[in-house]
Amino acid sequence: MNLQQIKKDAEQAGFSSDSLNLIGGIIDEAIKRGKLEKEEIDRICQIIDVEVKTAQVIADARKEIAAALNDYADGLDSAVAQAAKEIDDAAKSGKAG
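^ thats the sequence. predicted structure below, dont judge the formating
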C-alpha cells in the first residue's frame, strides 16, 4: 500500500479533525521522503489508539444515557398509571357515594 492510499484511508476512517491533521502531517512528511519511519508508524498507531479509546468512552456514555432515559420513561409510565388509577378510584368513589 502506498503512502497516498494510507492517507486517503485515514481521511475516510472518521477520525477527529485534530487526529486527522496529525496523521496527515506525518504522512505528508513521509511522502516527501518516500517512506514512513518506525517512529512515525508508532506515532500514528498511538493516535489511532486514542481515537479508538475515545470512541469506546463515547459509546459507553451513550449506553448510560440511554439506560437513564429508559429508567426515567419507566418512572413516568408508572406515575401516569398510578395517577390514572387514583382518578379511576376517585371517580368510582364519587359514583358510589
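Residues 73 and 79 are 10 Å apart (CA to CA).
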